[in-house]
């Protein structure tokens, strides 16, 4: 687990590489979809934090040219504060889920994901479980298929092509999130473990966690301010954020929601699994 490579970001705490032993677990083949999340909302009446706050962050490149003026994030002005952006309206009130039932649900916080898990009798993966699953049986490679981003010119995940953030050439076919099974599965039959949307993990984030790691079934620090998210997204680009790698780490506050952050679930393994 982890990386000591030159592609790692020091502040993320990807190193040192270390051994971890995990108990068996079952993980969903893809991220939770809009259809699945909609079934949860219909059954429980759950209101997401983005809906309660009244807004969420949307990538400016996905907004129409005539969209009303919005406030940007100082350090990342491509992120726009859009009122009415929710899981039902991914780019704001004018947008819908038409044709996106099999896209990953976005604009969901860690707390929202936890609520879904309680309803579905599942849980979020630990960071260690997520990394093991993402590798698909490979160890020490940047991506689930190897070290080349586009082997033989093939696009194997949904990331940003062109010049970020102003010019997306759409070479992989998608400007925003792709369907959860849009790209080939890894060696474990899991889709989009890297790229497409970030995925929440259960752990609190600590950049120094690997310095004093637990070997067997680690669950991360006992407390913190941010929760781990893994896998990168359709906005990752080598020029500024090469976090679409198996070992890459990042984090966000548990009540945060964005247009490139979703989740997948795990459960205890059974003999049939």
Shape: globular
Major β-sheet annotation: 4 strands, mixed
Q: Which spans have pLDDT < 50 for at least 5 consecutive residues?
A: none
Read across the widest sheet, the strand sequence of neighbours is 9-8-7-10
Number of strands: 11
| Number of DSSP helical runs | 4
Rg, nearest Å: 18 Å
Helix-and-strand structural type: alpha+beta
Q: Which percent range fits the helix content? A: 10-25%
- Terminal CA distance: 24 Å
Description of the structure:
With 273 residues, the protein is an alpha+beta fold. It has four helices and eleven strands, in the order βααβββααβββββββ. A four-stranded mixed sheet has the order 9-8-7-10. It has a three-stranded antiparallel sheet with strand order 2-4-3. The chain is globular and about 50 Å long.
In brief, what are we looking at here?
The chain has helices spanning 34-44, 49-53, 110-120, 127-135; strands at residues 25-27, 55-59, 71-73, 76-83, 162-163, 167-168, 198-204, 227-230, 250-252, 261-262, 266-268. The protein has four helices and eleven strands.
Question: Which descriptors would you attach to this protein?
Answer:
3-stranded antiparallel β-sheet; 4 helices; 4-stranded mixed β-sheet; alpha+beta
Tell me the layout of helices and strands.
Blueprint: E1 25-27, H1 34-44, H2 49-53, E2 55-59, E3 71-73, E4 76-83, H3 110-120, H4 127-135, E5 162-163, E6 167-168, E7 198-204, E8 227-230, E9 250-252, E10 261-262, E11 266-268
Parallel strand pairs: 7-10
Antiparallel strand pairs: 1-11, 2-4, 3-4, 5-6, 7-8, 8-9
